[in-house]
Amino acid sequence: MKWFFKRRATLNAAISRRLAQLPTALSEVELSERLVVVDVEATGLNTRKDNILAIGAVAVERGGMAFNDTFYCVLNREHPVNDTVLIHRLGPETLAQGVSVEEGLLAFLEFVGAAPLFAFHAPFDEQLLLRECKQHLHHRLKHVFVDVAQMAPLLMQQPLVDATLDHWLGVLNLPMLARHNALEDAYATAKMLLILLRQAQTAGITELQQLKTALKRQLQHAQPAMF
């Protein structure tokens, strides 16, 4: 009996060199240092099979947002027109003009550098990026991800509930502009994050590890007691 195994695609030399030059992801940083807010648009909500169509990212540092420190790319993928494509304005023509999946993912990793990643409902973005980087770049993404949707109730002293980004923008009196674009959503999340970081500083949380500990404790307290 013969067994057939699917071979992994070989990366070209240029991409391999760029991957080798990526810095080691930081796990301990001051929250005043460079942090990257990311948002991905995908073909659906299933992180096991749906694919990334676009990536948007915005860096924040020292309590502000640098508008020249941003990233946005559309990936060149064939995908039928459905509600997701229509909502995110990523039709076949737009996708056809995008960069290759490998180039888009690698350019994003180069933009991020060693910085930790923040996202609204971060597990969605994290799982998609983990799977796609492994599949297309043979690269294990080791960056810390922090969920801004979990940070908000912690630092605004509200119950931990599954609320939308629009809900929290309203709570924080931030303008709710027309979005559904990865970069626009990353901008909105970054504005929210800056307010939450000021709240964190007031609460004495100034380091990433302190924030992760507080978020973990929050989850433990939210879980029902076991008898």
Keyphrases for this structure?
15% strand, 43% helix, alpha/beta, five-stranded mixed β-sheet, Nucleotidyltransferase, domain 5, 227 residues, 5 strands
Q: Write down the domain tally.
A: 1
Q: Overall pLDDT, averaged?
A: 89
> Could you say what the CATH architecture is?
2-Layer Sandwich
Q: Treating each run of at least 4 consecutive H or I residues as one helix, how many helices?
A: 9
Give the CATH topology: Nucleotidyltransferase, domain 5
Strand order of the biggest β-sheet: 3-2-1-4-5
Shape: globular
Structural class estimated from helices and strands: alpha/beta
- Estimated share of beta-strand residues: 15-25%
Distance between the termini: 53 Å
CATH superfamily: Ribonuclease H-like superfamily/Ribonuclease H
- Overall radius of gyration: 19 Å
What is the CATH C-level name?
Alpha Beta
The tally of strands reads: 5
| Contiguous uncertain segments of 5+ residues | 1-6
Q: The biggest beta sheet, please?
A: 5 strands, mixed
Task: State the order of secondary-structure elements, H for helix, E for strand.
Answer: HEEEHHHEHEHHHH
The helix content is: 40-55%
